């Protein structure tokens, strides 16, 4: 009976992991609704795929912007600050990029969105595992 309970619990845990949601952040930037999804939740050391969706005030997808991702980690004792950049590529209505987080800990992420000659930004932090 104990063996059956252990197997059942393992199946429940594996199913939960298989259907885990992406890491998601929603904010406003320059009059646009910005939805950022990272394919791992929490983000991990190594490659993390990032999807960015932009919507205008009426909810229409925005596909004529330029989106850059700046990400880095603040300096710590014995370690200089790390700063990286990732350009996005528009695939359909989603801007896609890959961030390579080189170590675990807090990463500061800034999306720079340029549309109609104006640049706005959205900031958030993730804790890579």
What features would you describe in this structure?
- This protein has one helix spanning 2-18, and strands spanning 23-29, 32-38, 46-55, 66-73, 82-87, 89-91, 94-101, 105-115, 118-128.
- It is mainly beta.
- The chain has a single domain, classed as Sandwich (Immunoglobulin-like), CATH 2.60.40.2480.
- The longest helix has 17 residues, at 2-18.
- The mean pLDDT is 90.
Largest sheet features: 5 strands, antiparallel
Q: Which architecture name does CATH use?
A: Sandwich
Q: Return the average pLDDT rounded to an integer.
A: 90
Spatial strand sequence of the major β-sheet: 1-2-3-7-6
Low-confidence stretches: none
Characterize the overall form: globular
Number of E strands: 9
Q: Provide a count of the helices.
A: 1
């Amino acid at each position: 009976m104990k063996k059956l309970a252990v197997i059942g619990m393992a199946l429940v845990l594996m199913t939960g992991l298989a259907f885990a949601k992406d890491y998601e952040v929603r904010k406003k930037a320059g009059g646009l609704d910005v939805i950022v999804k990272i394919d791992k939740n929490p983000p991990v050391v190594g490659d993390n795929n990032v999807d960015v969706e932009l919507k205008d005030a009426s909810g229409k997808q925005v596909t004529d912007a330029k989106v850059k991702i700046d990400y880095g980690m603040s300096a710590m004792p014995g370690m200089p600050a790390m700063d990286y950049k990732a350009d996005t590529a528009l695939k359909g209505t989603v801007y896609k990029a890959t961030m390579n987080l080189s170590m675990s800990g807090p990463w500061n992420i800034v999306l720079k969105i340029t549309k109609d000659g104006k640049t706005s930004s959205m900031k958030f932090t993730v804790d890579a595992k």
